[in-house]
Design a protein that fits this description.
127 residues; mainly beta; four-stranded antiparallel beta sheet; 0% helix; 46% strand
């Protein structure tokens, strides 16, 4: 059974940093899955934060996080990371990771392209 588990969320002051992890299990050939990080606040649509493709590791970022967030993956550990720097209050949300074997970077970082989802981890940025 495919499973994604996020960790690393919490509270941080504006300007601070957090690193989220997405640990995968039950995936056959994890390196062949595109992975995305998405976030959602109540009453708003889920937003694509960052996505990373398979072997070539092409990355895509949402406009609001470019230059501040970095997505990376360690296929040996079956884990994808989201390094978040210079956090702002508007980054407050539940962050979820998702995987799909058919996702390619040319598709864009949109949630409709991803099949398997984790439960999410809360990130709160406030003073």
């Amino acid at each position: 059974q495919e499973q994604l588990v996020e960790s690393g969320g919490g509270w941080v002051q504006p300007g601070g940093s957090l690193r989220l992890s997405c640990a995968a299990s039950g995936f056959t050939s994890f390196e062949r899955y595109g992975i995305g990080w998405f976030r959602q606040v109540p009453g708003k649509q889920r937003e694509g934060v960052a996505c990373i493709s398979t072997i070539d590791r092409i990355t895509k970022y949402g406009d609001s996080v470019k230059g501040r967030f970095t997505i990376s993956r360690d296929n040996g550990k079956k884990t994808v990371y989201l390094q978040m720097n210079n956090l702002k209050p508007e980054d407050t949300a539940v962050y979820s990771c998702a995987a799909d074997s058919n996702w390619a970077s040319g598709s864009g970082c949109y949630d409709l392209f991803f099949r398997s989802w984790g439960q999410g981890t809360q990130v709160t940025v406030s003073s």
